[in-house]
Amino acid sequence: MTYGTLIDISHDTSSNPVAYIPPQCYTDPVSDNGAHNPCYVCHTNSKRPNFLNDTDVQTTYTFPEPGVDNYWRNAFKDRRTEVSQISDEEILKYVREDNYQTDSGDIILAQKLAQPPKQWDRNDNGQWDGYVPDVYFNFDDEGFDTAPDGSLTGWRVFAYYPFPGTFMPTNGSTDDVMIRLPAAFRQNRKGEFDKEIYKLNLAIAESIAREKDVPFGPVDETQLGVDLNKDGVLSISSVIRYEWAPLQDRHMYYVGLAGELQKAGEVKAAARLLPVGTEFAHTVRYLDVTAEGTRMAKRMKEFRYGKKSFWQNYHQLRTIVDKEIKERHDFPERTKQVTGNAEQGLTVAHGWTYQGFIEDDAGQLRPQNYEETYFCAGCHGGMGASNDTIVSLERKFDHGTFRDGWYHWFDKDLSGVADPKREDGQGEYAFYLQNNPTGNEYRNNYEVLNKFFNADMTPKAEAFAQLQQDISVLLMPSAQRALELNKAYKVLVKEQTFAQGRDAILAPLPHMHEQVELDSDTGIEEILSYY
Predict the structure, then answer these.
(1) Which pTM was predicted?
(2) Residues 332-358: pLDDT tens digits?
(3) Buried b (16+ CB within 10 A) or exposed e, 248-259
(4) CA–CA separation, 488 vs 432, rounded Å?
(5) In terms of Cα–Cα distance, which of 54, 1, 28, 12 is closest to 368?
(6) Which domain of life is it from (predicted)?
């Protein structure tokens, strides 16, 4: 098997001092039709214990001094000639190849990491000390991943509403997300693996993280010793009732061994926070074009991983924000500092460690270097819309949907999924389009623009009516656009210039600042809310 050699992952520094500020933030939101506002999706009045409340970013370029220059040079490249040299047949063959697993089901990257190349071994101890991918993408009808020996890996996949903007497949990539709680959450009080206990703890974690009741059961509370429905007695319960007010002595408890450890003070729980040891796996993929339409492709662009390494309470999380605000004011030349390396990942102040693997120039997954992972630190902990530095779980499909939301996109795609309601009752994606008619931050997705708006920028009523019932009409691109975006990204893979931007871009972005003036106005006047 061939592996690329263009990138040296051993450098634990970043040539871009603000790699955590994504290229979207350098877009000029002002057009002939006034200012669009894509910024609210990330930067908003946050919910505790995310105390960032960074709505100021919507109206002002509040960058540190080194961030006034746009280091994302790929935004200015013209790849149309190279893209034209790749045939449709070639790109479809490429995206349909599995670069994660062999035909026998073995994980290619795990085999490589068993004896890592010397350059990957950052502490020179002869072994890989970071995360080793262990998701087999063999999900049962409840979303649980199964290893070749028939055992459950602990990973459970869930469906969710794609985050508005660049992450929508119409802008170049599909993606999926899996969650895994620590071993104790998968065991009964005797320390034995128990799938039903694990399902229940996942539901409790979801209830706590999303601050909402989660239907479950029926289950016998007397066998668990936990009052799940909060009716004051141990009985048969069909719901996990969200109720968390510790100052009034109202708590929520996990079950099984995790519950015993929680009572002993070894497992902590708090509203909108996940337990220490929680893991997320997230793959970013190409688009496949089939007779049935545009779908998720087999080939991975990236495999991303996050783990909650240590607990930060509300006071500590507030202190992180207060410190950042003070530094912005007193030391405008300072940038966000994140410790770690390519082997062990990078740890953000909120307690999460993030690590990523990305295609090398031969199309095989390799560890990201420091700078490529530093890119992840902005969204995971640096924006008001996140919840415990995570976005996907809060956007999980609710119970009552297909398989209660516990399934992979290969089992069911986005077609027929209704536009979710914002807290103000408006459709989320419809609201996004009203404020970003091209369906992305760069204002260059003319396919979306022409699908939903007339030449005079009046909305097409029929298209919005369809969106209300089926979000795939917005989220999934046409076959032609999908093929072009796949080709553009494949050119990027050959270049290995991810440190200059990893979006699938065919032509120079027309609305991109090469430089911004510190604390200058963005042109946006009305502050909007993600919620």
Answers:
(1) 0.96
(2) 888 888 999 999 999 999 999 999 999
(3) eeeebbbbbbbb
(4) 26
(5) 12
(6) Bacteria
What proportion of the chain, given as a percentage, has pLDDT over 70?
Answer: 99
**pLDDT, tens digit (0-9, with 9 covering 90-100), for 249-262:** 999 999 999 999 99
CB atoms within 10 A of CB 408: 19
3-class DSSP state of 154: strand
Q: What is the mean pLDDT of the chain?
A: 95
Residue 97: the pLDDT is: 98
Quick one: average pLDDT of 449-468? 97
Nearest alpha-carbon partner for 111 in 132, 130, 131: 132
Residue count of the chain: 531
> By CB neighbour count within 10 A (0-12 exposed, 13-18 middle, 19+ buried), where does 508 fall?
middle
Q: How far apart are CA 433 and CA 449, in angstroms?
A: 9
> Contact, 116 vs 128, CB < 8 A?
yes
Q: For residue 217, what pLDDT band results from cuts at 50, 70 and 90?
A: confident
- For residue 85, the SS3 value is coil
Chain centroid offset of residue 515 CA: 28
Residue type, position 136, single letter? Y
d(CA 408, CA 418): 18
Which neighbouring-strand residues pair with 276? none
Residue with tokens 């030391």: 331
- The bridge status of strand 279-290 relative to strand 293-308 is antiparallel
Q: Output the CA–CA distances (angstroms, integers) from residue 73 to 22, 37, 79, 137, 227, in the order listed.
A: 12, 23, 13, 35, 56
Distant-in-sequence, close-in-space partners of 99: CB < 8 Å, separation ≥ 6: 108, 299, 300, 359, 363, 364, 365
